[in-house]
Amino acid sequence: MDVAIALRGVRKALGGREILRGITLEVHRGDVFGYLGPNGAGKTTTIRVILGLLSPDSGEVSILGKRAGPGPRSRVGFVLESDGLFDGLTAAENLLLFARLYGVRGPRIDELLELVGLPGERHERVGKLSRGMRQRLALARALLHDPEILVLDEPTVGLDPSGQMELRGLVRELAAAGKTIFFSSHNLDEVERLCNRIALIHRGEIRLQGEVEALRAGGRGYVVELSAEPPPAAVEELRADGRLGLTEAHGRRLVLDPADGVGIPELAQALQARGLEIEAIYRRRASLEELYRRILAEGT
244 and 184, same structural domain? Predict the structure, then answer.
């Protein structure tokens, strides 16, 4: 698997406080990679190090297999939390200005405005655009030089639900077109919908990293599907047995988080002893929210 972005043992201190504590992560080509963490965890500092806006105190950063520098970084487009657009210029004028600054010849202004859903705002001054429109225009600017990698810092913050949906749709389109996308977010549902791989940073350290599906497969407890809804008395008996750890009972579905040493054979025996017929029993998949809360709790 080709690596698009790699950080190896990166440390960075600001104002006398170590923000990044030897972080190591990999973003593969073609990934939609979600970078999670609470406020102050180091997400924005990581992004600024990737983009060369900050230099690491130690460690290495590489982009597309080469040590990060002006050449490799020219293949990266980015949108930071502040869009950096000029309010007094129109949407098209902003793109033309940045195209000149980037040395882009024959910029695809109309094509990009169409891509981000702003063809009708071509001649509109940016100061009059909504937050969602500005964010989409900033994304068009990031695409001017047709980068292989897009880095997005909290791209949906401050957007209304409609704006969030539109931006998520754009991310999906760009990923389908072969772009590698690295974005930070507080929105766990958004990350779960969009990303194939994630990393979670907490207090300057990477605490979790990998494929979303593989990480979710490591959930705690079991799901049991019964052939019929259990009688209330049987449910109460199960709840009373602390070894079984019954946490949910909805219709024919039970969720159990048993004590250590209690596995599928013991669970099946306990259920069958109460006259319950089992159709299926399997390990429960964790949500990203559960994983996130668990990691943060472990770090307190």
Answer: no
